[in-house]
């Protein structure tokens, strides 16, 4: 009697079905290769739109902490031996180079020759060349006791750059966007310690040499600390190093320094800021009025305050 092989063949086919299905096209090698190609395409798209160091699209703004780190006030820059090193850098390199490039002319230098108390030096801002030029216009005694307010969000984003300008120009971080307390935090301590402050009340550089509106920070600082403000006007520095220019160009520059301004009794900080701005504008217009430039007797008294 013949025995049927159907059950055996059925079992064998059932055991082979998964293997044949793997090569049948449903789960075959071609599908595996297709999935790998699709993954490769996805990675290529991600590479075009993302940065490997941080998975963010290129069109997104740069990452910044919710609360920025508070920059140091660079107190080490006002200590020895850094002060002596800065003196050598400024006298040996900065001032000769500035003189050769601009043939700087200074009017009203009597007002900053020998200050008997800390003062705020308020100037218009045309270019990165302004600070070396303004420091050049000061006497050696005044320059050694002057710190420069540098925008914290510009010069101190990179710690190394902040240290370099701190060494070279004796800067301290000044908040352009913070409230009154941010303005007073380090400025008040510096004034109290006997340092003069060089500020740019416009808050940013002018692109064409015209004076912009002064921000109220300088008036608030002067009214709170009862510190006199010396207006200063720089003409021609936007040709030396215009905005976007990486290297200075030779051009004549003139700096006019006005009579110190005191906060009047009952005067608000905004009103005093407006008065400082008007004084700087009048200096730029060439005004010789005694209220702006001072009379000859006022200038004589300014230079005769201290015996030599």
Q: In angstroms, what separates the terminal alpha carbons?
A: 139 Å
Shape: elongated
Helix content: 40-55%
Q: SSE order, as H and E?
A: HHHEEHHEHHEHEHEHEHH
**How would you write the strand order of the largest sheet?**
1-7-6-2-5-3-4
**CATH class membership of the largest domain:** Alpha Beta
- The fourth-level CATH homologous superfamily of the largest domain is Glycerol-3-phosphate (1)-acyltransferase
* Strand element count: 7
CATH topology of the largest domain: Glycerol-3-phosphate (1)-acyltransferase
Q: Helix tally?
A: 12
Q: Decide which structural class fits the backbone.
A: alpha/beta
Q: What is the number of independent domains?
A: 2
How is the main sheet built? 7 strands, mixed
Average pLDDT works out at 81
At CATH level 2, the architecture of the largest domain is: 3-Layer(aba) Sandwich
Q: What is the gyration radius calculated from CA atoms?
A: 34 Å
Our estimate of the beta-strand percent is 5-15%
Spans of at least 5 consecutive residues with low confidence: 19-24
What multimeric state do the chains show? single chain
In brief, what are we looking at here?
This protein has 308 residues and is an alpha/beta fold.
Would you write up a description of this structure?
The protein has 308 residues and is of the alpha/beta class. It folds into 2 domains: 29-63, no CATH class; 75-303, 3-Layer(aba) Sandwich (Glycerol-3-phosphate (1)-acyltransferase), CATH 3.40.1130. Helices cover 44% and strands 10% of the residues. The chain has 12 helices and 7 strands. It has helices at residues 6-22, 29-49, 82-102, 130-137, 140-144, 152-155, 159-169, 180-192, 217-225, 237-240, 269-284, 296-303, and strands spanning 105-107, 120-123, 146-151, 171-174, 196-199, 229-235, 254-257. A 7-stranded mixed β-sheet has the order 1-7-6-2-5-3-4, with helices on both faces. The longest helix has 21 residues, at 29-49. The protein starts with 5 loop residues before the first helix and ends in a 5-residue tail after the last helix.
